[in-house]
């Protein structure tokens, strides 16, 4: 059973033990500093630790602009950091109050985007035991499933930055944090939004939890133990998902035939893992079910699945991720390729080396492009289709043209037969290789 009564008076020792157990000496830290009591206490503890162990410590305050007092919070955080001689970065973000995610989730997403840009190795956040319990109940009430109800891990890596997110106060109660602040006479702000029961989390804290505590003895301990049990279960699930993912992966894309050998639930988990790896956002359950149904019914050869941060495409029994942040996607959409994007490799049937010194350029294909082959003139679009270049990328495929704007090379596929040499060169754009196999 989780012991939630411990650590009231020894917060420093709890954080110190976690720090010593998890981080080598060379790690640097940034504290997420809202100005509330939780983050102020964590900053104070980390400052004491930095005095004892001499590591680099900074802080970051995210200004959401959602409260009239937001500028005052900036002033307080600045003042406190100056007192401790801790460098502070202040980041201003815009939160869409009409976001489909909800204001709280949209603000959290904006904060985490800021944390990913930290210059330090570790970002320390002040989430505590009470936050963990509220997160569990919130996920349960919203149907968050296993991944939601495991709540917050003590440590995780922020992708793609590889910054470590560390929550050293998860075993500590709110009461213990407030007692620490009182003991050291720490100044902090009260966020008025924490008083509003319009936010579901606040309603859970103010209304639901007191009822649970009145009815069920040691309810907090039971919930926390359940979270630990669920985290163990999720760890086992993740091991299985990773193995299924590796078995279904075909050089960067998913193989549908391999997916179909799995149960429906394992199929879904592999797809969710694939989506997460490519930072495409969290899909709605209805759209996930629709895609899985399509995979297993195979009512067509092409499927386009819109996700929050990109798309999934399925074509010829393969599944590709197409992220909005993908540099290749941006280059293909704009047609903006430069000579530096090309790597020239030796190959029989390549182009004469002198051609590289001539006046040539890269552009996207157009519907009228043709190329001379051994069997005559071919449409470049038909050539791409015959080579099973995916539909969604076919009309944006880059070609190399001469000074007269004639297509001389279809990158990755063919050199015009009139320009071929036994010991020639062929151009390669590495990020296109995924779509050539």
Going by CATH, the architecture of the largest domain would be 3-Layer(aba) Sandwich
How far apart the termini lie comes to: 53 Å
Overall average residue pLDDT:
90
Low-confidence stretches: 1-8
Give the SSE map.
Blueprint: H1 11-22, E1 29-32, H2 37-53, E2 57-63, H3 70-84, E3 88-92, H4 103-115, E4 122-124, H5 129-141, H6 145-149, E5 155-158, E6 163-166, H7 174-183, H8 200-215, H9 219-248, E7 249-250, E8 253-255, H10 256-259, H11 264-277, H12 285-297, E9 302-307, E10 310-315, E11 318-323, H13 327-334, E12 343-347, E13 350-351, E14 361-364, E15 370-373, E16 376-379, H14 380-386, H15 391-394, E17 398-401, E18 407-410, E19 414-415, E20 420-421, E21 424-428
Parallel strand pairs: 1-2, 1-4, 2-3, 4-6
Antiparallel strand pairs: 5-6, 7-8, 8-11, 9-10, 10-11, 12-21, 13-20, 14-17, 15-16, 17-18, 18-19
Helix pairs in contact: 1-2, 2-7, 5-8, 5-9, 9-11
Written account of the structure:
This protein has 3 domains: 11-215, HUPs (Rossmann fold, 3-Layer(aba) Sandwich), CATH 3.40.50; 227-325, Up-down Bundle (Chorismate Mutase Domain, subunit A), CATH 1.20.59; 332-436, no CATH class. It is 41% helix and 20% strand. It is built from 15 helices and 21 strands. The strands form 6 sheets. The protein has a 6-stranded mixed beta sheet, sandwiched between helices. β7 (249-250) and β8 form a beta hairpin. Residues 1-8 have low confidence and may be disordered.
